[in-house]
Design goal:
Blueprint: H1 5-19, H2 26-33, H3 37-49, E1 53-56, E2 60-63, H4 65-89, H5 96-103, H6 109-118, E3 144-145, E4 154-160, H7 165-173, E5 181-187, E6 194-198, E7 201-205, H8 207-210, E8 213-217
Antiparallel strand pairs: 1-2, 3-8, 4-5, 4-8, 5-6, 6-7
Helix pairs in contact: 1-2, 1-4, 2-3, 4-5, 4-6
This protein binds zinc ion.
């Protein structure tokens, strides 16, 4: 079934909120998509009629199996395109998201397969987010937020948020890319900064930035 770009964006956002184990509500969607609550309400009705979501009082909005399939397909497009733009065309990692937001809706299945083939069936995008395969399966890693790590620990950056180009440039300047090992030196109390070592260099970053980085344990 051909769906509008707006429907696809809703399904993707619902998936993203669900995957943070948060309740999907009119207000969380309104905030995420930056649209008025009234528009969200009417869209949720439309999505329920198409059996893409269920909406029950107190449980919020949930993707049905067909809604989930669409969301994962769009996410696959988005992440493949991001990686393709970076690897094949050299587009910097802070600029690929914006482009992929448009491409994700228009990519044909044929082009999707070709990009996947060209990139050697990649499993993560330039920001470390997992790329679902054709069947919607992806490698989910047991990650946690950088601000939850104890001082002294060595961790590997798993994923950084792709939404803010300025933040990505800031991370890039310190070499805070996915798959990079970092050692946490200290975390100051009272919302103070986190000091860490990246490739032998020491940096301090604020918690407001650090919360956009998720990490996994470094293999000892
Ligand atoms: Zn992105």
């Amino acid at each position: 079934m051909a769906l509008s770009q707006s429907i696809e964006d809703y399904l993707k956002s619902i998936y993203e909120i669900e995957s943070k184990h948060e309740n999907v509500t009119t207000s969380s969607l309104s905030e995420k998509l930056n649209v008025a609550p009234a528009s969200v309400t009417s869209m949720i009705k439309k999505l329920s009629e198409k059996k893409l979501v269920t909406h029950k009082k107190y449980q919020g909005v949930k993707l049905t199996n067909s809604g989930l399939k669409v969301a994962l397909e769009i996410i696959r497009h988005h992440r493949l395109v991001e990686l393709y733009l970076k690897e094949a065309l050299g587009v910097p990692w802070d600029q690929v998201h914006e482009e992929a937001e448009k491409w994700e809706h228009v990519l044909s299945e044929d082009l999707e397969d070709r990009i996947d083939e060209y990139l050697g069936h990649p499993t993560s995008d330039p920001h470390g987010s997992p790329i679902p395969d054709r069947n919607g399966n992806m490698i989910e890693r047991d990650s946690r937020n950088l601000i939850e790590v104890s001082p002294g620990a060595k961790v590997i950056i798993a994923e950084v948020s792709d939404h803010n180009p300025e933040l990505l440039r800031y991370f890039g300047k310190m070499g805070l890319y996915p798959e990079t090992e970092v050692k946490i030196i200290s975390i100051e109390p009272f919302q103070g900064p986190i000091t860490l070592v990246v490739k032998g260099e020491e940096y301090s970053i604020g918690r407001e930035a650090a919360k956009y980085i998720s990490v996994v344990e470094a293999d000892a």
